[in-house]
Amino acid sequence: MTAEIITIGDEILIGQTIDTNSAFIAKEFNKIGLSINRISSIMDKESDILNTLNSSIDNSDIVIVTGGLGPTNDDITKKTIVKFFDDTLVTNQVVLDNIKFIWKKYIKQPLLQVNIDQSLVPSKSHVFVNTKGSAPGLWLKKNNTIFVFLPGVPFEMKELIKNSVIPKILNECNLPFIIHKTILTYGMGESSIAEIIKDWEKSLPNDISFAYLPSLGRVKLRLSTKGNDLQKITNKINSYTAQLLPLIRDIFTGYEEDESIEKLIANKLTSNNLTISFAESFTGGKISDSFVSIAGASSFFKGSMVCYSTESKVNNLNVDKELIDKYSVVSKEVVESMALNAKKMFSSDYSLATTGNAGPSKGDSSKEIGTVYIGIATPKKVFSFEFNFGNSRERVTGKSVNKSLELLNFILKELLKN
Q1: What is the spatial distance between Cα 325 and Cα 340, in angstroms, rounded to a whole number?
Q2: Nearest-angstrom CA–CA distance, 412 and 383
Q3: Which one, of 61, 53, 29, lies nearest residue 145 by Cα?
Q4: Torsion angle defined by CA atoms of residues 388, 283, 281 and 291, in that order, rounded to the nearest 10 degrees
Q5: What does the pLDDT look like over 5-43, one tens digit per residue?
Q6: How does the average pLDDT of the chain come out, rounded?
Q7: Nearest to 137 by CA among 125, 122, 149, 121
Q8: Residues near 105 by Cβ (< 8 Å), separated by ≥ 6?
């Protein structure tokens, strides 16, 4: 079976809002054996919606539509659904009761008629009550195609996909199994990896697809296959993965399906009752943010300081002004001082610091744009590393974040292996 994802909203087409809904839905559907054959974004315009829905009947078994279900005049999806399915709107009492509950408990403002009208649903639809918001999810069929309409608000959509839509799909549809094995590597470009594993790649059978997914400073390697015998295809993927790993032993960090590199680092710290802190300059808190998002981060994350300016490094992080004057704010000596001072300030066992010239100008340092220093203070010593990541600000920042994670994971792995 194939599925199609449609997002409705002018804000997506003008770049005001990034479509994260499609990525989430595609990933969740792949887990249950649904292949995505098309993703599209369209305007909040009746003719565009009707044309897209009509074309979907011939192309997909399941069509997921997000957006346009809000209470305001620019949200026209529900009215268009009625026309497409030759249906009428009726009040759904369960949805109305849910809306009243939300307004009484959380909104604490008068319930307007436009909010009450959110309980109007197509009479032919199966309704998914949205416990996170007022717009319900809708399930309808036309010919042999299933259409599911969901609110565009990401956290509402995710709740409905996981707890309502997927269970109903699994109950009504006979799906194959799709297996993805995504290997995480850090520290080597895709062309270099391809050269190392070229013989292995040539040995792959036709029913296993292989892809390189490069990012800034890291490359994901994905093996994919599908079939009706889960154990058989799992064993096959695992067999070829086992042949691959010895070839990339030095750059392999784990599997995307299991844990991110941030989670691997967090596990190393928590299992050894260790803590960490950060002092970030040009990375602006991006490294810290990647750890704070981990549940239970308070057990290992002591704190972070974004000391972007030279003054903040001196006045807030207590970096010696003479050290900066002598070696430059972008230097080995300063990043080591930042790491050591953050470790002391937050009373952590480890600390990581960054300083660099991300561009477009050199700022307070004479170092070339792209020059980056990463410092890691451990219980016994401090390490520092110098890199040049080019002249693109986004590239320099992104590669620095990934390189910091790679170095931190490597140092912890080496120091804690006993």
Answers
A1: 19
A2: 12
A3: 61
A4: -130
A5: 999 999 999 999 999 999 999 999 988 989 999 999 999
A6: 93
A7: 149
A8: none
